[in-house]
User: What shape does this take?
Amino acid sequence: MKALIIDDEDLARAVVRQHLAAHPDVTVVAECANGFEALKAAAQYEPDLIFLDIQMPKLDGFEVLELLEAEGRRPAVIFVTAYDQHALRAFEAHAVDYLLKPFPRERFDAALAKTRALLAAKEAPLVAPPAAAELAATARQGRPLERIVVKDGPKITVVHLDRLDWVQAQDDYVLLRTEGRNLLKQQTLASLETQLDAGRFIRIHRSFILNLDRLVRVEQDGKEHREAVLRDGARLPVSRAGYQRLRELWEES
Amino acid sequence: MHPLLASRARLGSYLLGWLPIAALLAGMARTQGWTWAEAGALSLPLCLLGAFLFLSAWTLCRALPLGQGTEGLANRGAAWGTAALLMGGLWSGLAWLLARGLALLPALNGLPIKVRTALPVITGLGILLYLASVALSYLLLAQARTLEAERRGAELQLLAQESELKALRAQLNPHFLFNSLNSISALTAVDPARAQEMCVLLSEFLRRSLGLGERRLVTLGEELELARAYLAIEQIRFGSRLQLAWHIAPAAEPALLPTLLLQPLVENAIKHGIATLTEGGVLTVDAAVTEGHVVLSVDNPVDPDAPPPVGLGLGLRQVRQRLLGRFGSRARFESSLRDGHHHALLVFPLETS
Assistant: This one.
């Protein structure tokens, strides 16, 4: 079994490595100090298992997992983290294991045993592993998303939500408009909508979500045809339901 | 006790306020053909008696506080009216007795007859004065209530600050603790001596922060010791990613400041600065003294790709509040993000114990 250890702290990686010494069937193919290294190593070694920290610079653990997914990789994952245990307890329902730092040897061995069983059953999985975005949402415990990672060819772009102007649905993809650029990400508009802060991002149309901060005014021409005028002069269609949502927000504030 | 009786100055000005009323009474008497002696001899003592008699309105007003609406206004009106009639009658009765007493003096022996004809006027004036006293009492009651509310507000604020401090003491960052323990767990196998060193550092940090949490004011020197203990641990965790630069003027160390003001700043510098950078960077702590003020700053690089945070975070807001709570306008707190660096600046008067 090929394994990757991904953690920004040397000592945290060392603990996992020490514990793995007792499991000769597991080979550590690489150790990575950040998400970018992890993606590179995953492409190079195609690991069966990754030990993944959650809080890391640039890309957090969930984002690394999401990007791996986008590349069609889905190694078994054991989260190793000092993250809030309440947030992670829900993972048990998803058959995803996690180790809370610091952890005892028995706990480590148990997690590894579970992973072996999971990998053995991979040919005929009983339950599909949850999408990374879903895990991340679980861990956020209802808090809205703060940034979106997009794989743009070989490049990875992290879009902070205050830099996101609007989102447009394009079949199975969403087009993200940020700082004058368009980025495509494989996700449905509906699933993205549930993760965004409903007070900041409004579904103004079947195909559009708008960052409310960018809205200047809504213009009406014709009986039921409305357009949102944005700060940069761009115009987006506003449906009747979308207009209703905007009005509700205005009336609340 | 009546608030006017509570302070000599207030009582004095209240009695002075009765002088024009006495003058008015005397003037009215003069127009009825009274001599100056008669008018003065009656009006002055009568007004003095009235001054104290009408203070009784206070008790009535306190028993019948003004509500928000007009509810029960009729009942209260009836009570004021009845009391005013009684007091007006009582006052004119006193005037009559006073006149009888003064009539013992030969120059004033015509007073009782004159007073008898003036009794309705005195009663009417008494009623009006009593009603005026009712109005004054309500005014004083409202003022007392406002003062009370202000006092209670200040008390609450103090309580809130206390509880905030308690919360700060309890706020040992769990993420930091668990990560540190994990580092120790790693070191026990590969480098037992370092593991031991880190246990000692962690204990020192915990002991210091518990100790500081007990106090409201500490010296900057003590606060710096806590930061050093904390950063020594983080340095083991982050390795070469965390470099430290200390520029501490010895003259700044005895300066007193509210407890745990520096600690949130260095914790932020790690959490939102060094930890977000794959290459890490230099964390600088500066303390200098200029013109009787301590200038304390914490500087660290941040991830340039992260958007600048909106406003101050809760931690920084608390730092500012507590600094200004202690020193008022003599202190200053700034937090700025420029050229990929976060810079927190505290300026406060150099005060030592």
